Amino acid sequence: MRKEIKILAAIAVVVVIAAIVGANYYRSSIQSERITAGNNTNKQAATTANAEQLVRPDSPTLGAADAPVTIVEFLDPECESCAAFSPIVKKILKEYEGKIRFVVRYMPLHPNSLSAATFTEAAGEQGKYWQAQEMLFQKQPEWGTKHGPSPGAPADINALFKKYAAELGLDTSKMDSAFAQNKYAAKLERDKKDGQSLGVRQTPTFFVNGRRLARLGESDLKALIDEELK
User: Fold this and answer.
1) Which fold has domain 61-229?
2) Staple 178 to which of 2, 33, 122, 230, CB 3.0 to 4.6 Å?
3) What are the Cα distances from residue 177, in Å, to 40, 56, 116, 155, 167?
4) What tens digit of pLDDT does each residue of 153-164 get?
C-alpha cells in the first residue's frame, strides 16, 4: 500500500512539473510572437525611413523612376575609389539599361569635397551634371588630395573649377555665384547626415533597392542587382 502511495505521489509530482513547464512555454511563446510582431513593425518603419533617406527629390538621377531596381551611390568626388569605380558603374548602367534607376548622394569626406560637389551641382543646373562629374573624376589628380595636399595642388581650387567650367561651356558667372553663395551647403550637409544615419562610413557605398552592397566589386554589384530583378 505504501508503495502504491509513493508511486501515485511521484506521478502527481511529474504532472505538476509538466503543467508548470507547459504554462511557462505557452507564456514564452506568446511573448515571442509579440516580440516578433513588434520587430516586424519596427522593420517596416525603418524601411520607410530608409527609403526617405536613400533618395531625395533633388538627388541627381539617371533612369526611369519606375525602374525595378534603384541603385543609390554615396560618393565623394575627391575619393580615388569612386573615380576608379565610375567606369564600372557606367558599364553596368548600360548592361541593365531600362531596368535601373541610378541615384547619386554625397558623402563629403575630403578637403575639397564640398567645392567639387558645388561644381557638379552648379553644372547640373546648366544641364551638364554628369559631364562635370566625369571631368572631375578624370582630372582628380590635378585638384584632389591624397591623405593631405598633393604636391603641386593649386592654392585656389575654385579657380581651377572655373577653368573646368569654361571647358564644359558653362556660364562661369553662374558658377562664381554658386560658390560665392555656398549655394548647396544645406543639400550637401543633408546628404551627409542621411548617409551617416544609414551607416555609411566610407565611399563609395552602394544600396540596391535599399540593400547595402557588402563588398565593392563589379560581380558583387551585378549579383545583387540580379537578385532584385528575380
Assistant:
1) Glutaredoxin (3.40.30)
2) 122
3) 48, 24, 15, 20, 18
4) 455 888 899 999
